[in-house]
Design a protein that fits this description.
alpha/beta, Uracil-DNA_glycosylase-like_sf, UDG_fam1, mitochondrion, nucleus, EC 3.2.2.27
Length: about 325
């Protein structure tokens, strides 16, 4: 093999520098898009836009009262058309950009076909209409945060819950997780209790942010990705279950045929979703129990040993390097 010349080395360094710059630029663009989306949609820009259109229509109708009947009718028709066009444009903009602007690239590539299917179109229309009069969690920019924290090719564990927390400031796109300064809700406290039982070195933290675990290949996913404020289960059976089932199928259909994963199905909705997919239990580790909610944790969640069993299975199948370090969030 010929030795590399100084010109070769300089050329390689330039190429690597160019790649690094491109990667940084892409990352910056994604952050900007996500930041922009956090100020859109679920924070009610649609209401503002719609209100302006309606005000315009009201003014046009009022002005028309001073004109002959024919002119009045024409003004009302024009005003109504303006409202319809503005609301259609507003809605279509949200439908077109939310996924492409906020979803992680690895997931976006395989899930794009879903966005054009009738069920997903209906789901997005429902969410847009819901947003016009209700508060929805999590904020738009965080609905798909799980996809950015846990790339498709890195998934080792899927923890499937039901729907997001429904109180202000809690849900941020990862099942069971909350960001500071929110304190861990009851369900997460029970998860911490089970972690302390399964992992002797784990000590429950004051924070509820599960992002550091997600970055290790743990997909914290809900069967429904949004919820109306203060109304648990309000967005179930609207289409999310079909979509999240496809998210799971994307993991099952990865190119690596030997890429078995751990499934933790907590609660009946999660179990129904996985049952509808059909999990090959010879290839994957399937674990199920009651939901960690304080209302049901005593019926089988506490004492389920899921975290210990997951690591034991991962070590046996892939070696020690595959172990999930659950203590990464442990209290110091």
């Amino acid at each position: 093999m010929p030795k590399a010349t100084s010109d070769d080395i300089e050329s390689t360094e330039e190429m690597l520098a160019t790649r690094a710059t491109t990667t940084i630029r892409k990352s910056s663009q994604t952050v900007t898009k996500v930041s922009t989306l956090s100020e859109m949609w679920l924070k009610k820009p649609s209401i503002s836009t719609s209100a302006k259109a309606k005000a315009s229509a009201k003014k046009a109708t009022a002005d028309a009262k001073e004109e002959p009947e024919a002119s009045s009718s024409k003004a009302r028709t024009t005003a109504a058309a303006e409202v319809a066009l503005q609301e259609k444009a507003m809605t279509q903009g949200i439908l077109d950009t939310l996924e492409t602007d906020t979803m992680g690239e690895s997931w976006l590539e395989v899930l794009k076909p879903e966005f054009k299917k009738p069920y997903f179109t209906q789901l997005k229309k429902f969410l847009t209409a819901e947003n016009a009069s209700q508060t929805i969690y999590p904020p738009a920019a965080n609905i798909y945060s799980w996809s950015r924290l846990t790339p498709l090719d890195q998934v080792k564990v899927i923890i499937l819950g039901q729907d997001p927390y429904h109180n202000q400031g809690q849900a941020h796109g990862l099942s069971f997780s909350v960001l500071p300064p929110m304190k861990p809700p009851g369900s997460l406290k029970n998860i911490y209790k089970q972690l302390e039982t399964d992992i002797p070195t784990f000590k429950a933290p004051k924070s509820g942010d599960l992002s550091p675990i997600a970055k290790q290949g743990v997909l914290w996913l809900n069967t429904s990705l949004t919820v109306r404020a203060h109304k648990a289960g309000s967005h179930s059976r609207k289409g999310w279950e079909t979509f999240t089932a496809q998210v799971i199928r994307a993991v099952l259909q990865r190119e690596d045929e030997d890429s078995g994963v751990v499934f933790m199905a907590w609660g009946l909705p999660a179990q129904k979703t996985l049952a509808s997919i059909g999990i090959n239990k010879k290839k994957h580790l399937y674990l199920e129990s009651a939901h960690p909610s304080p209302l049901s944790a005593h019926r089988g969640f506490l004492g389920n040993g899921h975290f210990r069993k997951a690591n034991e299975w991962l070590v046996q199948k892939y070696g020690k390097e595959a172990v999930i370090d659950w203590t990464v969030i442990s209290a110091k």
